[in-house]
Amino acid sequence: MPVRAALRVRMQKAILGVALSAPFGALNLSAQSPHVFKGEICVEPGGRAAVLEKGQATAQCTVTRPKRGARYVLSNLENQTVYQLDGRKPKNFAGNKVVVVGTLDDDTRTIYVDEMFRALPPKVAQSKTIYIDCDACPRGMAEAWLAAFEGLTDWGRFDIIPDPKKDELVFLFSANPYLGDYVTRDGPDKRPVRVDITYMDVVDPLTGESLWGDSRRWGSLLVARATKDLIGEFKDEMELEEKF
């Protein structure tokens, strides 16, 4: 099973575990089920960091030029908490707001991480209308548009509109990585296309910023399946954030 597909399966299991554990109190770490934590990945106190006093964050999170070997923490200034992280390297998420699924050890204030991903920008949750764009999609890649339409229609979360000037989000599919130039470029992507990887980006049509993105290296014969799987992964992340 591809790595990102396996991640989606684990995420679904984590969501189920969180949902089932919500009504029950845990007696010890081994008996606990995963819970959801939100915050920002910062450098541990002692570096350029959120200051930790009695388990609470008392300063802004910064990650500018952390020292080699620096440890990272999950800081939430809104509810004044800081947790150590164990089980998944958070360096690639440094400075980002994230959603963590994991088990908390209250004694050490450590989260044993099952999954971690970047939190979605508020605009994603607030938007209701989308436009589907398949950018420079020849041959088998052309299946992405219809697969996206079917997957998003089945979900029913957004209204799909035919006018790109009236949408709040663009669901962009391509066989090439997104360059962030949806607003500034003149016409479709002119790079050579090799239908090997299906890329999906949720783009802000006003700024061109990718608000969410991922890919599947599933080859030209599985473009439709890859497209629906990417939509499924995005749906799982949205529903996890909205539920908790």
Short structural description:
With 244 residues, the chain is α+β, with helices and mostly antiparallel strands. Helix content is 24%, strand content 28%.
Description:
α1 packs parallel to α4 (223-243) and α3 (143-155) runs parallel beside α4 (223-243). This protein is an alpha+beta fold. Residues 1-6, 20-31 and 46-52 have low confidence and may be disordered. The protein has helices at residues 3-21, 122-126, 143-155, 223-243, and strands at residues 35-43, 52-53, 56-57, 72-76, 81-86, 97-105, 110-118, 129-134, 159-160, 169-174, 198-203, 210-216. 30% of the residues are buried. β6 and β7 (110-118) form a beta hairpin. It is built from four helices and twelve strands.
What are the secondary-structure elements, in order, as H or E?
HEEEEEEEHEHEEEEH
CATH architectural category of the largest domain: 3-Layer(aba) Sandwich
Tally of domains: 2
In percent, how much strand structure appears in the residues? Answer: 25-35%
| Shape descriptor | elongated
The first-level CATH class of the largest domain is given as Alpha Beta
**Helix fraction?**
10-25%
Contiguous runs where pLDDT drops below 50 for at least 5 residues = 1-6, 20-31, 46-52
Measured distance between first and last alpha carbons: 28 Å
